[in-house]
Write a structure and sequence with these properties.
The protein is mainly α. The chain has 18 helices and no strands. About 50% of the residues are buried.
Length: about 450
Amino acid sequence: MSDDVPSSPLRALLPDLAPWRTSADFRRLWVAGLVTNFGSFLTFVALPVQMKTLTGSAAAVGAIGAVELIPMVVFGLYGGALADALDKRKLIIWTEAGQGVLCAVLLVDATLPHPAVWPLYVVAALSAALGAVQRPAMDALTPRIVAHEHLTAAGALNSLRWTVGGVAGPALAGVVVAYAGLGWAYAVDLVTFAVSVAMIAGIAPSPASHEAARPSLRSIAEGARYAWSRKELLGTYAIDLAAMFFAMPLAVLPFLADELDAAWSLGLMYAAIPAGSLLVSLTSGWTSHVHRHGRMVALAAACWGLAMAGAGVAHNVWLVLLCLVLGGCCDMVSGIFRAAIWNQTIPDELRGRLAGIELLSYSVGPQLGQVRAGGMAAWAGVRTSVWAGGALCVGAVGLLAVGLPKLMSYDDRTNEHALRMRSARAEDFPPAPPVTAS
Protein backbone atom coordinates (compact mmCIF):
# COMPACT_ATOMS: atom_id res chain seq x y z
CA MET A 1 0.00 0.00 0.00
CA SER A 2 2.98 2.31 0.19
CA ASP A 3 6.10 3.14 -1.73
CA ASP A 4 7.60 5.04 1.20
CA VAL A 5 10.02 3.14 3.41
CA PRO A 6 10.49 4.52 6.92
CA SER A 7 14.07 4.93 8.10
CA SER A 8 13.59 2.59 11.06
CA PRO A 9 10.85 0.38 12.52
CA LEU A 10 10.62 2.65 15.57
CA ARG A 11 10.12 5.80 13.50
CA ALA A 12 7.47 3.98 11.50
CA LEU A 13 5.44 3.58 14.69
CA LEU A 14 5.98 6.89 16.48
CA PRO A 15 3.53 9.68 15.59
CA ASP A 16 4.69 11.86 12.71
CA LEU A 17 5.32 15.26 14.33
CA ALA A 18 5.91 17.15 11.07
CA PRO A 19 2.73 19.26 11.43
CA TRP A 20 3.76 20.18 14.97
CA ARG A 21 7.30 21.11 13.91
CA THR A 22 6.40 23.11 10.82
CA SER A 23 3.26 25.00 11.86
CA ALA A 24 3.10 27.22 14.95
CA ASP A 25 -0.62 27.72 14.34
CA PHE A 26 -1.19 23.97 14.37
CA ARG A 27 0.67 23.74 17.69
CA ARG A 28 -1.55 26.43 19.19
CA LEU A 29 -4.73 24.81 17.90
CA TRP A 30 -3.62 21.37 19.10
CA VAL A 31 -2.74 22.53 22.61
CA ALA A 32 -5.93 24.59 22.87
CA GLY A 33 -7.97 21.56 21.85
CA LEU A 34 -6.19 19.32 24.35
CA VAL A 35 -6.76 21.76 27.23
CA THR A 36 -10.43 22.36 26.49
CA ASN A 37 -10.94 18.64 25.87
CA PHE A 38 -9.88 17.82 29.43
CA GLY A 39 -12.18 20.49 30.80
CA SER A 40 -15.11 19.40 28.68
CA PHE A 41 -14.82 15.85 29.98
CA LEU A 42 -15.12 17.20 33.51
CA THR A 43 -18.50 18.67 32.60
CA PHE A 44 -19.37 15.61 30.52
CA VAL A 45 -19.15 13.53 33.71
CA ALA A 46 -20.38 16.15 36.20
CA LEU A 47 -23.58 17.05 34.34
CA PRO A 48 -25.22 13.60 34.45
CA VAL A 49 -23.97 13.09 38.01
CA GLN A 50 -25.68 16.32 39.06
CA MET A 51 -28.86 15.35 37.19
CA LYS A 52 -28.88 11.98 38.95
CA THR A 53 -28.34 13.65 42.32
CA LEU A 54 -31.16 16.14 41.77
CA THR A 55 -33.75 13.78 40.24
CA GLY A 56 -32.75 10.20 41.04
CA SER A 57 -34.16 9.33 37.62
CA ALA A 58 -32.33 7.38 34.91
CA ALA A 59 -34.84 8.75 32.39
CA ALA A 60 -33.96 12.31 33.37
CA VAL A 61 -30.27 11.56 32.84
CA GLY A 62 -30.98 9.91 29.49
CA ALA A 63 -32.98 12.95 28.39
CA ILE A 64 -29.74 14.96 28.36
CA GLY A 65 -28.72 13.07 25.23
CA ALA A 66 -32.14 13.63 23.69
CA VAL A 67 -32.00 17.42 24.06
CA GLU A 68 -28.50 17.42 22.51
CA LEU A 69 -29.38 15.48 19.36
CA ILE A 70 -31.51 17.98 17.42
CA PRO A 71 -29.19 20.97 18.00
CA MET A 72 -26.26 18.79 16.95
CA VAL A 73 -27.92 17.89 13.64
CA VAL A 74 -29.32 21.34 12.80
CA PHE A 75 -26.37 23.44 13.89
CA GLY A 76 -23.81 20.97 12.54
CA LEU A 77 -25.07 21.63 9.02
CA TYR A 78 -25.47 25.37 9.57
CA GLY A 79 -22.12 25.55 11.34
CA GLY A 80 -20.48 24.08 8.26
CA ALA A 81 -21.96 26.86 6.13
CA LEU A 82 -20.78 29.47 8.65
CA ALA A 83 -17.27 27.99 8.63
CA ASP A 84 -17.07 28.54 4.87
CA ALA A 85 -18.46 32.08 5.00
CA LEU A 86 -16.68 33.55 8.06
CA ASP A 87 -13.20 33.79 9.50
CA LYS A 88 -12.68 30.34 11.00
CA ARG A 89 -10.47 31.54 13.82
CA LYS A 90 -13.03 34.12 14.97
CA LEU A 91 -15.83 31.57 14.76
CA ILE A 92 -13.87 29.14 16.94
CA ILE A 93 -13.07 31.88 19.48
CA TRP A 94 -16.67 33.06 19.79
CA THR A 95 -18.09 29.55 20.13
CA GLU A 96 -15.40 28.65 22.66
CA ALA A 97 -16.21 31.78 24.67
CA GLY A 98 -19.92 30.97 24.45
CA GLN A 99 -19.34 27.52 25.87
CA GLY A 100 -17.35 29.13 28.66
CA VAL A 101 -20.36 31.30 29.52
CA LEU A 102 -22.57 28.20 29.61
CA CYS A 103 -20.07 26.53 31.93
CA ALA A 104 -20.29 29.57 34.21
CA VAL A 105 -24.08 29.08 34.33
CA LEU A 106 -23.55 25.50 35.50
CA LEU A 107 -21.07 26.69 38.12
CA VAL A 108 -23.53 29.24 39.50
CA ASP A 109 -26.38 26.71 39.52
CA ALA A 110 -24.23 24.11 41.31
CA THR A 111 -23.36 26.57 44.10
CA LEU A 112 -26.98 27.54 44.84
CA PRO A 113 -28.57 26.18 48.03
CA HIS A 114 -31.18 24.45 45.87
CA PRO A 115 -29.81 23.87 42.34
CA ALA A 116 -32.41 23.82 39.57
CA VAL A 117 -32.80 21.05 37.01
CA TRP A 118 -33.94 23.06 34.00
CA PRO A 119 -30.62 24.94 33.51
CA LEU A 120 -28.89 21.60 32.98
CA TYR A 121 -31.10 20.81 29.99
CA VAL A 122 -30.83 24.33 28.57
CA VAL A 123 -27.05 24.33 28.88
CA ALA A 124 -26.80 20.83 27.36
CA ALA A 125 -28.83 21.90 24.31
CA LEU A 126 -27.01 25.21 23.81
CA SER A 127 -23.61 23.60 24.35
CA ALA A 128 -24.43 20.96 21.74
CA ALA A 129 -25.40 23.73 19.32
CA LEU A 130 -22.21 25.71 19.91
CA GLY A 131 -20.08 22.58 19.67
CA ALA A 132 -21.76 21.65 16.39
CA VAL A 133 -21.06 25.13 15.01
CA GLN A 134 -17.45 25.04 16.19
CA ARG A 135 -16.35 21.59 15.05
CA PRO A 136 -16.66 22.21 11.27
CA ALA A 137 -14.62 25.39 11.65
CA MET A 138 -11.88 23.53 13.53
CA ASP A 139 -11.84 20.76 10.94
CA ALA A 140 -11.77 23.28 8.09
CA LEU A 141 -8.94 25.25 9.69
CA THR A 142 -6.46 22.37 9.72
CA PRO A 143 -5.87 22.29 5.92
CA ARG A 144 -5.30 26.06 6.08
CA ILE A 145 -2.43 25.81 8.57
CA VAL A 146 -0.81 22.46 7.64
CA ALA A 147 1.04 21.62 4.43
CA HIS A 148 -0.76 19.20 2.12
CA GLU A 149 1.81 16.42 2.51
CA HIS A 150 1.40 16.56 6.30
CA LEU A 151 -2.40 16.33 6.43
CA THR A 152 -2.49 12.60 7.23
CA ALA A 153 -0.05 13.15 10.09
CA ALA A 154 -2.11 16.12 11.30
CA GLY A 155 -5.22 13.94 11.34
CA ALA A 156 -3.39 11.34 13.41
CA LEU A 157 -2.18 13.98 15.87
CA ASN A 158 -5.69 15.39 16.18
CA SER A 159 -6.94 11.88 16.87
CA LEU A 160 -4.26 11.53 19.54
CA ARG A 161 -5.51 14.72 21.15
CA TRP A 162 -9.07 13.43 21.27
CA THR A 163 -8.18 9.98 22.55
CA VAL A 164 -5.90 11.30 25.30
CA GLY A 165 -8.82 13.40 26.47
CA GLY A 166 -11.21 10.48 26.08
CA VAL A 167 -9.12 8.18 28.26
CA ALA A 168 -7.66 10.55 30.84
CA GLY A 169 -10.46 13.12 30.98
CA PRO A 170 -13.18 10.91 32.50
CA ALA A 171 -10.72 9.46 35.00
CA LEU A 172 -9.73 12.96 36.14
CA ALA A 173 -13.39 13.97 36.18
CA GLY A 174 -14.31 11.09 38.45
CA VAL A 175 -11.67 12.11 40.98
CA VAL A 176 -12.61 15.80 40.91
CA VAL A 177 -16.35 15.16 41.23
CA ALA A 178 -15.91 12.57 43.99
CA TYR A 179 -13.40 14.44 46.14
CA ALA A 180 -13.83 18.14 45.30
CA GLY A 181 -17.45 18.39 44.21
CA LEU A 182 -19.44 19.41 41.15
CA GLY A 183 -18.65 23.10 41.52
CA TRP A 184 -14.92 22.47 41.22
CA ALA A 185 -15.46 20.39 38.08
CA TYR A 186 -17.31 23.26 36.42
CA ALA A 187 -14.76 25.79 37.69
CA VAL A 188 -11.83 23.88 36.19
CA ASP A 189 -13.71 23.56 32.90
CA LEU A 190 -14.31 27.32 32.89
CA VAL A 191 -10.58 27.97 33.32
CA THR A 192 -9.74 25.62 30.43
CA PHE A 193 -12.07 27.59 28.14
CA ALA A 194 -10.22 30.80 29.04
CA VAL A 195 -6.85 29.18 28.32
CA SER A 196 -8.13 27.79 25.02
CA VAL A 197 -9.45 31.16 23.85
CA ALA A 198 -6.10 32.77 24.63
CA MET A 199 -4.25 30.10 22.64
CA ILE A 200 -6.55 30.30 19.60
CA ALA A 201 -6.34 34.11 19.58
CA GLY A 202 -2.66 33.70 18.68
CA ILE A 203 -3.49 31.87 15.45
CA ALA A 204 -3.34 33.85 12.21
CA PRO A 205 -6.71 34.98 10.78
CA SER A 206 -8.38 32.48 8.44
CA PRO A 207 -10.86 34.47 6.34
CA ALA A 208 -13.37 32.91 3.97
CA SER A 209 -12.17 32.18 0.45
CA HIS A 210 -13.42 34.46 -2.34
CA GLU A 211 -15.50 31.60 -3.77
CA ALA A 212 -17.31 30.88 -0.49
CA ALA A 213 -21.11 31.22 -0.48
CA ARG A 214 -23.09 33.07 2.18
CA PRO A 215 -24.63 30.75 4.80
CA SER A 216 -28.09 29.70 3.65
CA LEU A 217 -30.16 26.63 2.92
CA ARG A 218 -28.97 26.92 -0.68
CA SER A 219 -25.31 26.85 0.36
CA ILE A 220 -25.96 23.85 2.64
CA ALA A 221 -27.67 22.07 -0.26
CA GLU A 222 -24.70 22.92 -2.48
CA GLY A 223 -22.41 21.18 -0.02
CA ALA A 224 -24.68 18.13 0.08
CA ARG A 225 -24.75 17.95 -3.73
CA TYR A 226 -20.97 18.11 -3.84
CA ALA A 227 -20.68 15.32 -1.29
CA TRP A 228 -23.12 13.19 -3.32
CA SER A 229 -21.12 13.79 -6.50
CA ARG A 230 -17.90 12.57 -4.85
CA LYS A 231 -18.44 8.85 -4.38
CA GLU A 232 -15.21 8.39 -2.43
CA LEU A 233 -16.44 10.95 0.10
CA LEU A 234 -19.87 9.37 0.14
CA GLY A 235 -18.21 6.04 0.84
CA THR A 236 -16.39 7.35 3.92
CA TYR A 237 -19.67 8.63 5.38
CA ALA A 238 -21.64 5.49 4.53
CA ILE A 239 -19.04 3.06 5.87
CA ASP A 240 -18.68 4.92 9.15
CA LEU A 241 -22.46 5.11 9.60
CA ALA A 242 -22.80 1.38 8.89
CA ALA A 243 -19.97 0.47 11.26
CA MET A 244 -21.37 2.53 14.12
CA PHE A 245 -25.02 1.65 13.56
CA PHE A 246 -24.54 -2.11 13.36
CA ALA A 247 -21.64 -2.70 15.75
CA MET A 248 -21.52 0.01 18.44
CA PRO A 249 -21.99 -2.02 21.68
CA LEU A 250 -21.77 0.60 24.46
CA ALA A 251 -25.47 0.51 25.38
CA VAL A 252 -25.37 -3.18 26.30
CA LEU A 253 -21.96 -3.39 28.01
CA PRO A 254 -23.48 -3.31 31.54
CA PHE A 255 -25.62 -6.33 30.61
CA LEU A 256 -22.71 -8.10 28.93
CA ALA A 257 -20.64 -7.69 32.09
CA ASP A 258 -23.49 -9.23 34.12
CA GLU A 259 -23.81 -12.19 31.74
CA LEU A 260 -20.08 -12.83 32.12
CA ASP A 261 -20.50 -12.64 35.91
CA ALA A 262 -17.88 -9.89 35.88
CA ALA A 263 -19.56 -6.71 37.05
CA TRP A 264 -16.10 -5.50 38.11
CA SER A 265 -15.07 -5.35 34.43
CA LEU A 266 -17.63 -2.75 33.32
CA GLY A 267 -15.29 0.20 33.75
CA LEU A 268 -12.60 -1.67 31.83
CA MET A 269 -15.07 -2.41 29.04
CA TYR A 270 -15.93 1.26 28.68
CA ALA A 271 -12.24 2.18 28.68
CA ALA A 272 -11.18 -0.59 26.27
CA ILE A 273 -12.34 1.00 23.01
CA PRO A 274 -10.76 4.42 23.79
CA ALA A 275 -7.62 2.62 24.94
CA GLY A 276 -7.35 0.86 21.58
CA SER A 277 -7.83 4.17 19.81
CA LEU A 278 -5.11 5.73 21.95
CA LEU A 279 -2.74 2.86 21.16
CA VAL A 280 -3.10 3.50 17.43
CA SER A 281 -2.72 7.26 17.90
CA LEU A 282 0.54 6.73 19.78
CA THR A 283 1.88 4.44 17.03
CA SER A 284 0.47 6.28 14.01
CA GLY A 285 3.72 7.15 12.24
CA TRP A 286 3.12 4.43 9.64
CA THR A 287 -0.10 6.09 8.44
CA SER A 288 1.87 8.81 6.63
CA HIS A 289 3.38 6.14 4.38
CA VAL A 290 0.06 4.62 3.26
CA HIS A 291 -1.57 5.96 0.10
CA ARG A 292 -4.56 3.66 -0.55
CA HIS A 293 -6.71 5.41 2.01
CA GLY A 294 -10.05 4.13 0.77
CA ARG A 295 -9.04 0.51 1.15
CA MET A 296 -7.78 1.20 4.66
CA VAL A 297 -11.10 2.82 5.63
CA ALA A 298 -13.07 -0.22 4.46
CA LEU A 299 -10.63 -2.81 5.84
CA ALA A 300 -10.48 -1.15 9.25
CA ALA A 301 -14.28 -0.83 9.44
CA ALA A 302 -14.69 -4.52 8.58
CA CYS A 303 -12.12 -5.46 11.23
CA TRP A 304 -14.04 -3.32 13.74
CA GLY A 305 -17.10 -5.46 12.99
CA LEU A 306 -15.09 -8.67 13.38
CA ALA A 307 -13.73 -7.47 16.72
CA MET A 308 -17.23 -6.68 18.00
CA ALA A 309 -18.46 -10.08 16.79
CA GLY A 310 -15.60 -11.64 18.73
CA ALA A 311 -16.64 -9.73 21.85
CA GLY A 312 -20.13 -11.17 21.45
CA VAL A 313 -19.10 -14.81 21.16
CA ALA A 314 -16.24 -14.81 23.71
CA HIS A 315 -17.06 -16.35 27.09
CA ASN A 316 -13.92 -15.13 28.84
CA VAL A 317 -14.02 -11.54 30.06
CA TRP A 318 -10.38 -10.96 29.15
CA LEU A 319 -11.04 -12.05 25.57
CA VAL A 320 -13.99 -9.68 25.48
CA LEU A 321 -11.76 -6.85 26.67
CA LEU A 322 -9.13 -7.77 24.08
CA CYS A 323 -11.74 -7.68 21.32
CA LEU A 324 -12.94 -4.26 22.48
CA VAL A 325 -9.38 -2.93 22.48
CA LEU A 326 -8.84 -4.31 18.96
CA GLY A 327 -12.11 -2.70 17.92
CA GLY A 328 -10.89 0.65 19.22
CA CYS A 329 -7.68 0.22 17.22
CA CYS A 330 -9.63 -0.47 14.04
CA ASP A 331 -12.00 2.43 14.60
CA MET A 332 -9.10 4.84 14.96
CA VAL A 333 -7.37 3.54 11.82
CA SER A 334 -10.57 4.08 9.86
CA GLY A 335 -10.96 7.56 11.34
CA ILE A 336 -7.42 8.63 10.47
CA PHE A 337 -7.79 7.69 6.82
CA ARG A 338 -11.30 9.11 6.52
CA ALA A 339 -9.96 12.44 7.77
CA ALA A 340 -7.03 12.20 5.35
CA ILE A 341 -9.37 11.82 2.37
CA TRP A 342 -11.48 14.75 3.54
CA ASN A 343 -8.55 17.08 4.17
CA GLN A 344 -6.67 16.15 1.01
CA THR A 345 -9.48 16.54 -1.52
CA ILE A 346 -12.18 19.00 -0.43
CA PRO A 347 -11.84 22.58 -1.77
CA ASP A 348 -11.39 25.28 0.86
CA GLU A 349 -14.61 27.05 -0.12
CA LEU A 350 -16.60 23.87 0.69
CA ARG A 351 -14.54 22.50 3.57
CA GLY A 352 -16.76 23.82 6.34
CA ARG A 353 -20.01 22.53 4.86
CA LEU A 354 -18.51 19.12 4.24
CA ALA A 355 -17.15 19.11 7.79
CA GLY A 356 -20.74 19.62 8.95
CA ILE A 357 -21.77 16.51 7.05
CA GLU A 358 -18.79 14.65 8.51
CA LEU A 359 -19.91 15.69 11.99
CA LEU A 360 -23.26 14.03 11.39
CA SER A 361 -21.68 10.86 10.04
CA TYR A 362 -19.49 10.24 13.09
CA SER A 363 -21.83 11.58 15.79
CA VAL A 364 -25.30 10.40 14.76
CA GLY A 365 -24.10 6.89 13.84
CA PRO A 366 -23.03 5.90 17.37
CA GLN A 367 -26.27 7.24 18.86
CA LEU A 368 -28.36 5.25 16.40
CA GLY A 369 -26.13 2.28 17.17
CA GLN A 370 -27.05 2.53 20.83
CA VAL A 371 -30.72 2.25 19.89
CA ARG A 372 -29.98 -0.71 17.62
CA ALA A 373 -27.95 -2.52 20.27
CA GLY A 374 -30.53 -2.04 22.98
CA GLY A 375 -33.46 -3.04 20.80
CA MET A 376 -31.76 -6.15 19.45
CA ALA A 377 -30.66 -7.14 22.96
CA ALA A 378 -34.25 -6.91 24.20
CA TRP A 379 -35.44 -9.03 21.27
CA ALA A 380 -32.66 -11.60 20.80
CA GLY A 381 -30.41 -11.34 23.86
CA VAL A 382 -27.34 -9.34 24.79
CA ARG A 383 -24.66 -11.58 23.30
CA THR A 384 -26.61 -11.98 20.07
CA SER A 385 -26.95 -8.21 19.84
CA VAL A 386 -23.17 -7.83 20.04
CA TRP A 387 -22.00 -10.63 17.74
CA ALA A 388 -24.81 -10.24 15.20
CA GLY A 389 -24.23 -6.51 15.08
CA GLY A 390 -20.58 -7.13 14.31
CA ALA A 391 -21.45 -9.62 11.59
CA LEU A 392 -23.97 -7.23 10.04
CA CYS A 393 -21.29 -4.54 10.08
CA VAL A 394 -18.88 -6.75 8.13
CA GLY A 395 -21.58 -7.57 5.59
CA ALA A 396 -22.65 -3.94 5.18
CA VAL A 397 -19.07 -2.74 4.74
CA GLY A 398 -18.46 -5.46 2.15
CA LEU A 399 -21.52 -4.41 0.15
CA LEU A 400 -20.52 -0.76 0.31
CA ALA A 401 -16.98 -1.58 -0.79
CA VAL A 402 -18.32 -3.41 -3.84
CA GLY A 403 -20.81 -0.65 -4.61
CA LEU A 404 -18.35 2.24 -4.23
CA PRO A 405 -15.31 1.46 -6.40
CA LYS A 406 -14.23 5.12 -6.30
CA LEU A 407 -13.54 4.76 -2.59
CA MET A 408 -11.66 1.49 -2.99
CA SER A 409 -9.45 2.90 -5.74
CA TYR A 410 -8.62 6.13 -3.91
CA ASP A 411 -4.87 6.83 -3.91
CA ASP A 412 -3.63 10.20 -2.69
CA ARG A 413 -0.84 10.12 -5.30
CA THR A 414 -3.18 9.82 -8.29
CA ASN A 415 -6.65 11.01 -7.24
CA GLU A 416 -7.58 14.03 -9.37
CA HIS A 417 -9.07 15.96 -6.46
CA ALA A 418 -6.05 15.30 -4.23
CA LEU A 419 -3.68 16.40 -6.99
CA ARG A 420 -5.70 19.56 -7.62
CA MET A 421 -5.69 20.50 -3.94
CA ARG A 422 -1.99 19.66 -3.60
CA SER A 423 -1.25 22.08 -6.44
CA ALA A 424 -3.55 24.79 -5.07
CA ARG A 425 -2.00 24.64 -1.61
CA ALA A 426 1.60 24.53 -2.85
CA GLU A 427 1.68 28.34 -3.02
CA ASP A 428 0.66 28.63 0.64
CA PHE A 429 3.23 26.07 1.80
CA PRO A 430 6.36 26.34 -0.39
CA PRO A 431 8.94 23.59 0.11
CA ALA A 432 11.62 24.31 2.67
CA PRO A 433 15.00 25.30 1.23
CA PRO A 434 17.56 22.49 1.13
CA VAL A 435 20.01 22.32 4.00
CA THR A 436 23.58 22.92 2.83
CA ALA A 437 26.76 21.99 4.60
CA SER A 438 28.61 24.90 6.19
